[in-house]
Amino acid sequence: MYRGQLPLGLRHRARFEEGRRGGEQEHEVSPNIDGLEMRIVESAIVLLKFRRAGNAYDANGFFVHVPGAQRGVIFTAGHNLVDEQGSRSTELRVWWQGEPDEVAVAPEDVRISAKYEANPTPASAVFDYGAILLPKPASANTRRPGFGFALKLAEEEVQSSVNITTYKPGTPIGPETRPVHFIGGCTNPQAKSQIEHDISTEPGVSGSPIWVGYKKYPTVVGIHNYGKGIDKLGKSGRGTRLTLSVMREIFGWAGALATNKQIRVVTTSDEDEDDDSDDNDNVRDDDGGRVEDRKICDRTDSGSSNEGEVYDDGEEYKERPKEEESGDSSGSEKESPEAPPQMAGPLLFLTWSPQDHIIRVVVGESLEPKWTRFFVLPVYASPLLVSKQPLFEYAFGLENPPKNWTREPDASSQEGDGRPLWVSWDIEQKMATLVTSLRQARLARWERQGDAYALRLLVRRRNGEDLWEVIVRTDSRVVMPWDLGDPGTEFTGLDYKTLDDEIPESYNRFVLV
What we know:
The chain is mostly beta strands and 513 residues long.
């Protein structure tokens, strides 16, 4: 069977721009599947069966690895879940490789884009997406494979070929059932909200993943939802691109989005410090460096989630509590701290300074509380496999920044355009600032040691392998002792140190509250 393999010479390299005060280095985007984990692709494809007006239909969906999600998440096309008259599909069932029988889906576990459901026609093709939420397996050994994703790719033109893997309509389920694979060109690389391609499809393929190879793994970039018939010239099929707005809505459904969070700076206890040496045995990465304990992404009842590039050791698959912010999401109780322990030291938070254009530290409540409120969400995840530990990253974003925020000292008085800014950690300049795109941002890893509630931030130097730790200094060279008791005082105390350095009068733990 033809599976779209291409010679290595057809690989495309996408160079992400070197951003302001740091940025992402070159990553390979490959259209081919040579050397990629095709078992991830095949096992992540989901066959949908449902009824509509008394007739039976087949369609497709696919699992995606969503770090921190309370439920298993199947992405699919919105028109698989609701017809043009606004009637929901009934008797919805799903099946994937390794599952002995079809799995019935309850109506309350179906989510549809609000904008698409308001007008479920091709006129809303950009918003033609939805999701199916399933309970997570009880054991990490039975977890479901899922595609990886990278929100940075949504900021780039699609210069590579793209893949669609799908079950054809009428495919019988069974142990030998396998999806088919197609590969084609992207016909409009500049399209911001859709992936336009020249792959010939048929009814029933809607909801299939549009994916590329990224960092040598299958990475989904869109949800196929229309064949070439939607194009006036009949040349391009289309799919909804997995942009920030699309993923934020889906992450909200899955309970993987934390919003309106303050980043509190705290000290560490002697017990935390004693845990350092023991934890180092469990901290490594694929290059022989460090990797953080997966427990750092446990979420509390306050909905906190944590930024970082970490491996999954199976803790993600414990049942998670229902969170108020996720609204539609639901889940069972899990073991998780009810609230942060008593934290010694002054009440300090990270805050954005529109005047200085850097992240500063504020004592107690800020005079501009909105600059202390961030959202946190996963921005990258490698595919999920039982046999491998996936890598993933979280990022901080600032909602609705002011217009001309990088140029005008009084920009804080102006309303923004709704596009977020991302926190970028800069060791060389000993600061953190905001950038306009993920490709410009240098993200930090999070590490939690033992059962400590607070986390620490680790950042790599631009041209080095060593990890540096984000700290907040409170010595007299950055702030007077009496100012630490004066609410509203801001000071430039953010700094970095090597893991072996001892910096007096500094804090190196952070809590989302």
